[in-house]
Design a protein that fits this description.
Structural class: alpha+beta
Distance between the termini: 44 Å
Helix content: 40-55%
Largest sheet: 4 strands, mixed
Strand content: 15-25%
Strand order of the largest sheet: 1-3-4-5
Shape: elongated
Number of strands: 6
Number of helices: 4
């Protein structure tokens, strides 16, 4: 019986050199929300018909995102590697707007915070759409799953 969802997600902590309390909170929320509700269905058929649930490990090496997909018991299923060149600008823009948002929360008016948050969500939505496009034919994910995965991809890019 198919169960196309992620039941566990981990990040390659070796690639994360530094993160603030705000970023750590974003990571925790993204993982919590992802595990609560997601659609994640690799499109490659497996000889034994395995169709979920999945454990996912994310890492970035040499400008490529590796999605290590494992079975529920932890045994390897497949590794999908995506080039991240098209994500450089959305990641940079997302970091910049998040910095503005965190500063605004501490000092700005509610109207200013709302304006920045709308911009942040817009960038996040565009990046999620791009991720879904890049995964097309490889992994079927819904929009909310793509948004949460993009947040985690951003966390992997923090260099200090």
């Amino acid at each position: 019986m198919a169960d196309p969802r992620i039941i566990d997600v981990t990040l390659d902590e070796r690639t994360i050199l530094w993160r603030s309390a705000d970023i750590e909170q974003e990571r925790r929320i993204a993982i919590f929300d992802l595990l609560e509700d997601n659609r994640f269905a690799p499109q490659r058929a497996h000889a034994d018909g395995y169709a979920g649930p999945y454990r996912l490990h994310l890492s970035v090496e040499e400008g490529r995102l590796a999605l290590e997909i494992r079975r529920e018991d932890g045994s390897p299923l497949e590794i999908l590697v995506l080039g991240l060149a098209r994500f450089r600008r959305p990641i940079r823009d997302y970091f910049a707007i998040c910095d503005s948002y965190y500063q605004a929360i501490r000092n700005a008016s509610p109207a200013q915070i709302e304006t920045i948050d709308m911009a942040r969500r817009g960038i996040h939505n565009e990046a999620a759409a791009l991720l879904r496009e890049r995964l097309e034919g490889k992994i079927d994910v819904d929009f909310d799953t793509a948004r949460r995965l993009f947040t985690l991809i951003c966390v992997l890019h923090i260099k200090g």
